[in-house]
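quick q for whoever's on today - can somebody do inverse folding on this one?? i tried earlier but teh output was garbage lol. tokens:
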């Protein structure tokens, strides 16, 4: 596990974009797992800039969104389909047929979930799964007590999540289709972004707490290639800050590709 603490949120977002762009340069047909929410907005803007100004080519990239509100049509203003198009997909050259987002309006949700899992497998699996984290410690919408082996399914949102997300988007559905923790753990690499003091407790539990379904993100401790990118406030409750900084220094020397520096 690599814990990268970057004081400034804008620089942290650029660092995340650099890791994603580096993944695409090393493997142009990469499969990316995409989050929505407030956290990745800076990373998406920077990736769009890198596409326009630095020639980062996403024409062979495939994407799978983590989740979608259940019951919302694609064109609904609060859908993650709209969010992902407006904030990322409409500004880069990912082919529409390669951008996958669960169909929240599906009548046969069991089939939709099973098909989504099958589609991920058919592409050869996710190379880089990007995640945010909720105050409840959720990744995707895997709320506390989600099975650590869960797959894509419907999940009831917690009160905290409904509260947090309604503040941004107004009334939202209380159920979502989300990929599972088991699905996330099968990604080859995982990049989790967290900014702001509201995330500090969930981040500390995820990184230093026991592995428990009470904090879904703690399951990431079982994954061999996870990078956390945090700002100071999100890192505030970590106990081993000095150690994490030393690990980052060593990684820059020994495995610079983990931090998006393979071409430097
Ligand atoms: C979004 C998702 C969620 C968010 C989390 C943090 O697709 O899966 O896990 O990443 O709720 O949301 P923000 O970034 O808005 O704080």
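ok took a stab at it. sequence:
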């Amino acid at each position: 596990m690599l814990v990268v603490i970057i004081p400034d949120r804008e620089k942290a977002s650029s660092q995340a974009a650099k890791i994603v762009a580096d993944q695409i340069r090393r493997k142009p047909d990469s499969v990316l797992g995409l989050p929505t929410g407030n956290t990745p907005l800076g990373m998406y803007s920077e990736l769009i800039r890198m596409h326009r100004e630095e020639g980062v080519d996403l024409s062979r990239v495939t994407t799978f969104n983590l989740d979608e509100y259940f019951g919302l049509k694609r064109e609904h203003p609060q859908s993650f389909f709209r969010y992902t198009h407006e904030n990322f997909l409409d500004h880069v050259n990912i082919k529409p047929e390669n951008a996958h987002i669960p169909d929240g309006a599906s009548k046969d949700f069991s089939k939709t979930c099973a098909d989504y899992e099958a589609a991920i497998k058919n592409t050869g699996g996710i190379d880089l799964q990007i995640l945010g984290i909720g105050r409840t410690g959720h990744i995707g919408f895997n709320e506390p007590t989600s099975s650590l082996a869960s797959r894509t399914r419907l999940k009831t949102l917690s009160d905290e999540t409904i509260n947090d997300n309604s503040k941004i988007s107004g009334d939202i559905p209380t159920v979502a289709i989300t990929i599972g923790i088991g699905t996330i753990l099968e990604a080859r690499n995982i990049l989790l972004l967290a900014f702001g003091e509201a995330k500090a407790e969930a981040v500390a539990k995820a990184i230093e707490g026991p592995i428990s379904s009470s904090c879904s993100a703690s399951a990431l401790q079982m994954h061999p290639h996870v990078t956390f990118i945090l700002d100071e406030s999100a890192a505030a409750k970590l106990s081993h800050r000095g150690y994490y900084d030393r690990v980052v220094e060593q990684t820059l020397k020994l495995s610079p590709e983990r931090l998006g520096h393979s071409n430097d």
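fwiw Residues 35-39, 66-67, 132-134, 138-141 surround fructose -6-phosphate (CB under 6 Å). also The domain at 2-259 is CATH 3.40.50.1360 (Rossmann fold). so keep that in mind when u check it
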